[in-house]
Amino acid sequence: MNYGFIKVCAATPEIRVADVNFNAKNIINAVKESAAKGSRLTVFPELCVCGYTCGDLFNQPALINSCDGALKRICAATVGLTMLVFVGAPILKGGKLYNCAVAIHGGRVLGVVPKTYLPDYGEFYEKRYFNSADGCSTVTVADFENVLFGTQILFKAENMPEFCVAAEICEDLWAPLSPSVFHTQAGANIVVNLSCSDETVGKAEFRRELVKTHSAKLVCGYVYCDAGDGESTTDTAFAGHNLVCENGGVLSESALFENGLLFGEIDAEKLVTERRRTASGYYAPECGSTYETVTFSTGDDFIPVEREFSQTPFISSTGGSERCERILTIQQKGLEKRLKHTGAKTAVIGVSGGLDSALALLVTVRAFNALNKDLKDVVAVSMPAFGTTAKTKSNAVKLMKALGVTVKIIPVGESVKRHFRDIGHDPADKNVTYENAQARMRTLVLMDVANDCGGLVIGTADLSELALGWATYNGDHMSMYGVNASVPKTLVKRLVDYEAERLGGACGKVLKDILGTEISPELLPPDESGDISQKTEDIVGPYILHDFFLYYAIRYGYPPEKIRYIAVKTFEGVYNAATVDKWLINFYKRFFAQQFKRSCMPDGVKVGSVSLSPRSDWRMPSDAAASLFLGALDNEE
């Protein structure tokens, strides 16, 4: 079991044009090296057995026969290996020559895929030597008879169904309707491309974007192997620009003119889940019916995953300030529309001195500025109660004043005490009633203030809280529009920090202080020193872990044991395995138990690829059981 990860290799060995024995030796050495490093799939460049730039030598039987002999030696070198290998070679069939990808596994040739599109322009003149082919037939290669030959072949691991590969060759990718379009519709999750793309100024950037975009459009893994050292430089140069891409992302990329072995780890299980989730024509049974499938067996031994994962997957490693600005604008535009549609005169928001309400207030101010509305019509309300500390109350008021909105301070402690008397609750009993009564009283105040001034109550609950159910039902859980509904806690921090830097001054200073404050609902009295006593992350767990769990569980459907594996790897040195286990189990328990709160959550705009809105993204019964997911963790060793 390797959690769906498949280690792949794009290998560009040094070659000599027409020196087949030299080339075969280097190919075999690369096969052995890639296998020793755990590769399950290794791809070589186009026509690498003899060299792409052989020219009229392709018309010499001596060259073609020598290539066939080299394929025999390469096959022999793969005996006992569980790795699938694709080698580029000229193949003679029915008196015609074809530019082919030869699939080799365990000492035998599995299939031969000819190039579909033959370039015949500029520096390319393949139609002078090669033919195009369609459909499937058979051919004899390297003494193997009745080998499948054609463009419609899938190579599928019988012990790992998601490891399903198809091949295309160089120009096939650049064509308007690439063969890989049909390959992926027929069920291929990984496409390999054996290429000999010469290097010109600006071509590497275009090539990279082409491979990335193609892998995104087809929701596939794409292994692009380019020719390099040794190809003729009579008219062109070859840089060995290798790429391993997955669903629009570059997993690994070689430097130009630095040939060798490039490794990457494609998550085929994720690709299968993503296709099933979107179901936008990625699998077409009518395409699959015309394909032949060749099976092979890949290794069952566990290969440690070397792929790195960000500890904060909701925060892009690229884009920086521009990405933050885009997210805030989406939130702002969502609120603008709601304000205009309802004709609301004001926006009412409870400001606690914490992160979520700070972000919601910042978004509200942005929306009012964009609509040219008076900021005095943003009614910010501080509602201190039993757990409110002097620091958070002070920060709430400072932020309101710095932003120029209307400040209201409405203590709710006495109202809650009267409520306790009404329902017969002893305030000395600081149970869930003690806590939730404060949250619901605050919501009651906000709703009635909004009614009184013709306004909308702006919700503050974020995506992480909604996932964990860390909100009081019909308390802070409820609003008239939730601007933070699809913003996880780790991203809330990033956005508040961005606004602190952008705004600067008094506003920036107080936002920085809020960022440094412990996350807390402040529903229990402060400690003896007056500091926060109820610390959220001590109770439900670190948000950085929960956001990690949430992203991979919802965005890619990772099973619990896979999330555990990558979390332990990613947070090594920060949280040990026992800590990851503890909070992952807690995540699943809370996620399932608290669905009823999400089933009736307020409207709120989606900003990223993960949302828990019951109207658009996440539909789940409120009484679904978590036992299957918790059991998977219990059964893991």
**Overall CATH architecture of the largest domain:** 3-Layer(aba) Sandwich
What name is given to the CATH topology of the largest domain?
Rossmann fold
- Please give the CATH class of the largest domain: Alpha Beta
> Would you tell me the structural class of the helices and strands?
alpha/beta
Number of strands: 20
Nearest-integer average pLDDT: 94
Shape: elongated
Written description of the protein model:
The strands form three sheets. The protein has an eight-stranded mixed sheet with strand order 6-7-5-4-3-2-1-14. Helix content is 39%, strand content 19%. The protein is elongated and about 100 Å long. It has 637 residues and is α/β, with parallel strands linked by helices. The chain has two domains: 5-296, Carbon-nitrogen hydrolase (Nitrilase/N-carbamoyl-D-aminoacid amidohydrolase, 4-Layer Sandwich), CATH 3.60.110.10; 320-634, HUPs (Rossmann fold, 3-Layer(aba) Sandwich), CATH 3.40.50.620. It contains 21 helices and 20 strands.
Strand-helix topology:
Blueprint: E1 5-11, H1 20-36, E2 41-43, H2 61-77, E3 84-93, E4 96-105, E5 108-114, E6 136-141, E7 144-150, E8 153-157, E9 160-169, H3 171-174, H4 179-186, E10 190-195, H5 203-218, E11 221-226, E12 243-246, E13 249-253, E14 261-267, H6 268-278, H7 285-288, E15 292-296, H8 320-342, E16 346-350, H9 355-370, E17 378-382, H10 390-403, E18 406-409, H11 413-423, H12 432-452, E19 455-459, H13 463-468, E20 481-482, H14 489-503, H15 505-515, H16 536-539, H17 543-555, H18 560-570, H19 577-593, H20 595-598, H21 627-634
Parallel strand pairs: 1-2, 2-3, 5-7, 8-15, 9-10, 10-11, 16-17, 16-19, 17-18, 19-20
Antiparallel strand pairs: 1-14, 3-4, 4-5, 6-7, 8-9, 11-12, 12-13
